[in-house]
Structure formats: structure tokens, C-alpha cells
Amino acid sequence: MTSCHVVEDPIKKVAIFGGTHGNELTGVFLVKHWLENGAEIQRTGLEVKPFITNPRAVKKCTRYIDCDLNRVFDCEHLGKKMSEDLPYEVRRAQEINHLFGPKGSEDCYDIIFDLHNTTSNMGCTLILEDSRNDFLIQMFHYIKTSLAPLPCYVYLIEHPSLKYATTRSIAKYPVGKEFPPCALEVYKIMEKVDYPRNENGEIAAIIHPNLQDQDWKPLRPGDPVFLTLDGKTVPLGGDCTVHPVFVNEAAYYEKKEAFAKTTLLTLNAKSVRSSLH
Q1: Does the N-terminal peptide bond of residue 102 adopt cis geometry, omega within 30 degrees of 0?
Q2: 3-state DSSP call for residue 28?
């Protein structure tokens, strides 16, 4: 007999965010479309709300105005006293938290889809923040299965030394259905890798052509990673094979991230059955 986790409280309120980064246009276009005609995203028993998260950045088609909106949903920023002196994105995060949260409150939204683009060659990617949540693992497994045979990768950003303050959560979960135990293949972050830099802190090498566009592919010790401006190859160190992601992501130059190393592992989830209204 297999144990089954029962979700006592059915999912009732879902939000779909676009424009968290104003120059990532897929989410912007979709949300604007659904704001005009939301019939295709409505589901029986659900309240589904499309929402433009960073309208000023969207208007200027820039990633952000003052700071990265997707990094300020932490208690410190959300707890600051509202003031015009605060960066625009901090004030916007507080507004969003008021509209869709606060997390844990009776009126907060159950799930938020936050739609993004990347300049890296990562294809369809789901970002998972909790490897112990059967409900989330089941949702991600459902999405991957629904998209097959198209590839859909899962990036697990759970790491003790990496703290995220994002508005990320991706899910689709039909109420009243039981899902059997499942296994989900994920790429768990190990560490972020910066570009080689000179004594002035300036980038001194580019992504090696052999690594460019090779997100998710095995990268072995000794494989070329960077190419210096004077033509020297910098190989991968260490003693284990990794899988790079966000390779040469344009938005991450300011974050000093050339790519992130991940390791491939499998998560297992118990069966889940959602309760009916």
C-alpha cells in the first residue's frame, strides 16, 4: 500500500506574472493578451489573475529601474517603511506583497506563475526552490509530462549559501485528482562561476566557443570553459562532471556570473490527492 498525501485546502487563487524583468517580453505579451481575453487561462473553481509586475521597466523595455525586482522579496525589503526615497522596485515589491500576499495569510494567493526569458540556450526551464515538497515535485512532473516530447528541464536552486528573494513559483494542479508517486530529474545548483578578471576587476576572458550554447550538457574537468583575450584556454577545474546553466546570460554580467554549475539528481514524491471544494 502506498501512502498518499492529501492536500486539505484546494487551490483557489492563482496569479500569472509577466514583466518582473521589463525586457523579458514573452511574459509581458502573454499577460497583456490574457488581460484582454482571459478565457483560455480560466479553470473551474479557480480565480486566475494575470498581472504585469514591473510596469515602469516594461514601458522602458529594461530589466529594472533602480534594482532587480526579483531579488527584493525578502523580509528586510518588504518590511521597510514605505517612502518615495525607496528604490522603485522595493516599493513595487511591497505593493505586490500587499496585493498577492502576505505569504501565510488567509487571503494570499496559492500559486504564482512567474514567466521569464533568458539569453542562454536553456530551452523550457522550470525553477524549483524546495526539494522536499511533494506537492511542488508533483506539479513539475505534471508539467514535464504534459510538454513531452519537448524537453523541459528543472533547475533546483536550493543551496545553503545561496539566498533568493524572488517571486517565483510555477505550477498547474487539477483539483480533485490523485497523482501516483513520481520521480523528477532535476539539476541542482552547486555554485556560480564568475568570469576571469584582471587586477582592476574587469572581465579578462569570454565564454569558450565549445561551451557557448551548451546549457545542460555534461562539462568534464579539463574541458574548455573560458578563452582569454590573448587566446589562452581556461579549462574546468575540479574532479567531477557538472552541467552548466545560464551560460553567458546577458543579465548576469552585473551579478558576476558567467554560468552556474549543477549536478544531476532525482527527486521522489509521494502520491498526492487534492481535496474537492
Answers
A1: yes
A2: helix
Cα separation of 203 and 255, whole Å? Answer: 12
Helices (H), the chain: 25-36, 55-60, 75-78, 88-100, 134-147
Per-residue pLDDT of the chain (277 residues; tens, 9 = 90+): 334 454 546 788 899 999 999 999 999 999 999 999 999 999 888 899 999 999 999 999 999 999 999 999 888 888 898 888 999 999 999 999 999 988 767 788 888 999 999 999 999 999 998 899 888 899 999 999 999 999 999 999 987 666 555 554 322 333 346 789 999 999 999 999 999 999 999 999 999 999 999 999 999 999 999 999 999 999 999 999 999 999 999 999 999 999 999 999 999 999 987 654 4
Q: How far apart are CA 95 and CA 88, in angstroms?
A: 11
First to last CA, the chain: 27
If DSSP codes are grouped into helix, strand and coil, which group holds residue 251?
A: helix
* Distance of alpha carbon 75 from alpha carbon 71, whole angstroms: 11
| pTM (two decimals) | 0.86
Q: What is the rounded distance in angstroms from the CA atom of residue 253 to the CA atom of residue 245?
A: 14
- Tell me the residue length of the chain: 277
SS3 of residue 160 by DSSP:
coil
Show the cell assigned to 213.
550554447
Cell of 61: 523595455
